[in-house]
Write a structure and sequence with these properties.
heterodimer, A: 523 residues, alpha/beta, six-stranded mixed sheet, 18 helices, B: mainly alpha
Chain lengths: 523, 340
């Protein structure tokens, strides 16, 4: 590189950009710029606002306030095609490829300008080969996507996004699924693009990516830019400190309730669930975690942390009996994951409860009444049935009592679930899943998207369940939440497992660096 | 306040105009056709009784459709399941005892045959993920051809003249319950089926499972149900209803197996159930409505007021109108329902 990138004029710039989704502010007055031939790393925890910036630059959302400049001129990126024409290419974290089509067909899919429904495949193939050669790729254009590994799929995505004259390439978590060799290849490609004068925005949560390839880093937290600096001036510890922040006093206060007890599971704790040598695979078949050993003890809250997509959801699905681990065994409440009876119905009968990650998809049936939603997962419990028929009055009374106890704002048990706000839906799910007989509670992001008051309520409910001797697995990506309520924490990061470690001997910075994939905080 | 949705209003106007136009082109007076149909169905004893008679199988099959559609499983092949149930019952009829027990067993055989035929599609769906719309339609073709072979081959009457079976024993016939009509005890079977189905749908564990699978299969899996198994099973259950309807028709009306004895009932049953939005209590009302329509149009055809194919067109148009009308209030704009 001949000149210092940070001195160049911003090729693309965001000025005081704010983006809201209803009451949630995803980006608050964000300023950032990237110059031609510069690699900018966008770093931050989940929910820090990285994806919203990507989506605004790729034309999916418009900013509510502020403006986007290209070469000093304001632009309105009101649709993805406008962004593409402006020279912004995006490789999304989740590839948008049709698995049953060939690589060439997938690229052809988006080449709408090539004519009236007729494709000159030979010419297109020649152009694709040219683009691929410029990037240093050799692609097999005629193999089907489902026969390619993730690294090859990523190359096709990159070629796809480079088919137009791209001056800014956005890579959203490109290294999340790559092995070490493929990662190195990717960085070579980024270096090559940079040499050609292309601006690159690299979204990542991995510190090593930042130091390996980026010129500058912008660190986001809570939708704001908390630091923007040349990478040469940054240390890993500084980035982690910015990402994690010091405890947000208002939030921490709200989260830490008076009855809080700390100190891990009591000595001689009984493990109700033993995970031994478990290997988990993502939906795309790649291994997320292998050789996992962990116990879940009665009377403790074990936090499961880390950037999403590192196997946390897969572990919860296995523990819930909705799937079996790819390797190893889980022994839970006396059932083994390789046994015939392993399944959600059997584990629920034994006292497992599950607050699912995706409430709308798994936890509720929107058009059904609150009372009928209460039967979900309880459909085999004799308390509410006689001869296969629901004891309607008994159910209604029980639901009404639970709703009152959990302060759910709803006209009554016959109200359709979909008429409730998200917070009240979540409380209804908690009311259903937390009964006297709960022995294991899997709580996946139980407070996500809720207001402070409701979050506090959720945490008090978890602590109450712990006091009654339930074993609780809290899947969370919120460091504040973990430090406030959990006894122990285990972190999945990029195929590695950190912990389990007791929360009261762990610093926020250490937890943050584990999440970012670093063993120790370097001073 | 229900706001009508424009596309559906246009659709209704378009279809009405199409039918009236077709009748005019055929050289008949649309009002005369409508009058003749209504008069026959509502104001003649024969027409009304004919409609009542047809209400029985349509009700039973409509209930089966309601169950499977509630689970989001589209059983389009009730005609085939009806044939399978009827054929099994008639084939084994000679070995049945007489009297009430015999009749009960005859109907049970109908259920078993229909359930087995639907169960094939169910197994394909649960085990292999095969689309039930395709498999049930295909199995209907198979059943139709099988019936055609049976009544010309192994099950044909001893006289070997007409393609039909020998009559079943008179002791296996459902008795007439209204003197001087053909209204038979199958009517009571239908009433029983309505009550039982309504209880299962409204209050039963099974009905709850069907609803959850139909409305959110992921939630069903989360709750420890097996959505694929439930979806496969409901095909057998609704096939059982089709088989029951077939056995009731044979035992109550025809007394023997023959070709085309329940023409298109399986498809009509879909309209019957959809018009009342799969509510079992209302299925008999809807079934009576459709039966009156068929009875009325049947007489229009007999009087040769319009060419026969036009009758089918009018039938289809009326079904369409009912469906459009039943969908309209359901599609109230999302904002309108929050004030409650």
């Amino acid at each position: 590189m001949t000149s210092d990138p940070s001195e160049r004029v911003g090729f693309v710039a965001l000025q005081a950009v704010t983006k809201r989704f209803g009451p949630v502010v995803a980006n608050r007055s964000v300023d950032l710029q990237v110059g031609a031939g510069e690699v900018l790393a966008l770093v931050g925890e989940n929910g820090a606002g990285k994806s919203t910036i990507v989506n605004m630059l790729s034309g999916l959302f418009m900013p509510d306030e502020g403006r986007i400049l290209m070469e000093g001129q304001p632009v309105r990126l009101h649709s993805p095609s406008v962004a593409v024409r402006a020279g912004i290419g995006t490789v999304h974290q989740h590839y948008m490829l049709v698995p049953t089509l060939t690589a060439l067909d997938n690229i052809a899919l988006q080449q709408t300008e090539l004519g009236l429904g007729r494709l000159d495949r030979a010419a297109l193939a020649a152009r694709v080969r040219q683009v691929a050669a410029d990037l240093g790729f050799s692609l097999d254009l005629d193999s089907r996507i489902d026969g390619l590994d993730v690294a090859q799929q990523q190359r096709i995505e990159i070629v796809k996004s480079m088919m137009h004259a791209v001056r800014l390439l956005i890579l959203d978590e490109p290294t999340a699924v790559l092995g070490a060799d493929d990662r190195r290849h990717l960085f070579e490609v980024i270096a090559r693009l940079k040499g050609q004068g292309t601006a690159v925005i690299l979204i990542t949560h991995k510190l090593e990516d930042v130091f390996a390839i980026a010129d500058r880093a912008v660190i986001l937290r809570g939708g704001r830019v908390v630091a923007a600096s040349r990478v040469a001036d940054l240390t890993a510890a500084a980035i982690v400190a910015h990402m994690v922040g010091t405890a947000d006093s208002g939030k921490a206060e709200a989260i830490a309730t008076g009855s809080h007890r700390r100190g891990g599971a009591p000595a001689g704790a009984t493990a109700v669930c033993r995970v031994r040598g478990v290997t988990l695979r993502r939906a795309n078949g790649s291994v997320a975690v292998s050789g996992l050993d962990v116990d879940l003890n009665a009377g403790e809250i074990l936090a499961l942390a880390g950037v999403e997509g590192n196997g946390q959801s897969e572990l919860v699905a296995c523990l819930a009996g909705m799937s079996r681990p790819y390797g190893g065994t889980i022994e839970s409440l006396g059932e083994r994951s390789d046994g015939r009876r392993w399944g959600a119905a059997r584990l629920r009968a034994l006292g497992l409860r599950h607050v699912p990650e995706d409430r709308r998809r798994y936890g509720i049936v929107g058009p059904m009444s609150l009372a009928r939603n209460y039967l979900l997962g309880n459909q085999d419990r004799p308390a509410f049935f006689r001869w296969g028929l629901v004891k309607t009055r008994r159910l209604r009374d029980a639901v009404a009592a639970r709703l009152a106890e959990y302060q759910v704002v709803a006209p009554g048990p016959e109200t359709p679930m979909q008429n409730l706000s998200g917070g009240n839906q979540q409380k209804t799910v908690l009311a259903r899943e937390l009964g006297a007989d709960t022995r294991i509670l899997l709580a996946a992001h139980p407070s996500r998207g809720l207001d402070i008051k409701t979050i506090r309520f959720v945490h008090s409910v978890l602590e109450e369940a712990r006091a009654k001797g339930a074993a609780i697995l809290l899947q969370s990506s919120d460091i504040d939440e973990i430090m406030a309520v959990a006894d122990r924490v285990i972190v999945f990061s990029d195929g590695r497992v950190f912990g389990p470690a007791a929360c009261d001997t762990l610093s926020r910075a250490q937890l943050g660096s584990w999440i970012a994939g670093h063993q120790e905080v370097t001073p | 306040m229900t706001r009508l949705n424009r596309p559906e209003v246009y659709g209704i106007v378009f279809v009405v105009a199409l039918v009236v136009g077709a009748i005019l082109v055929a050289g008949a007076n649309p009002f005369e056709v409508a009058r003749a149909a209504v008069q026959r169905a509502l104001f003649t004893r024969a027409g009304f009784l004919e409609a009542l008679l047809r209400t029985v199988p349509l009700t039973i099959m409509g209930l089966g459709i309601a169950l499977s559609f509630r689970a989001g499983v589209f059983n389009i092949g009730m005609d085939g399941q009806l044939i399978a149930g009827s054929a099994l019952a008639v084939a084994l009829a000679p070995w049945l005892p007489g009297g009430a027990a015999g009749i009960a067993l005859f109907l049970a055989l109908g259920i078993a045959g229909g359930a087995a035929w639907g169960g094939i599609a169910g197994l394909i769906k649960a085990r292999l993920g095969g689309n039930e719309i395709i498999t049930t339609i295909m199995l209907t073709y198979v059943a139709t051809q099988l019936l055609s072979w049976l009544v010309r081959g192994p099950m044909q009457e001893k006289m070997r003249i007409i393609p039909r079976s020998d009559p079943i024993d008179a002791a296996l016939r459902l008795p007439v319950i209204v003197e001087g009509t053909r209204i038979h005890a199958g009517f009571l079977v239908a009433v029983l089926a309505v009550v039982a189905t309504a209880f299962v749908v409204r209050r039963g564990r099974y009905g709850f499972k069907l609803d959850v699978v139909g409305q959110n299969a992921s939630a069903a899996a989360y709750a420890g149900m097996n959505p694929a198994a439930i979806a496969g099973m409901v095909l057998a259950v609704s096939g059982g209803f089709a088989g029951l309807a077939g056995a009731v028709e044979i035992s109550g009306v025809y007394g023997r197996l023959q070709e085309g004895f329940a023409p298109g009932f399986g498809i009509s049953a879909i309209a019957v159930a959809l018009v009342v939005r799969l509510n079992p209590w209302l299925v008999p009302v809807s079934a009576l409505g459709f039966s009156l329509l068929y009875a009325g149009l049947g007489s229009v055809a007999q009087k040769a007021l319009v060419p026969f194919p036009l009758i089918t067109i009018i039938e289809g148009a009326v079904v369409f109108l009912f469906l459009a009308a039943s969908v309209m209030p359901a599609r109230v704009p999302a904002g309108a329902k929050s004030d409650g």
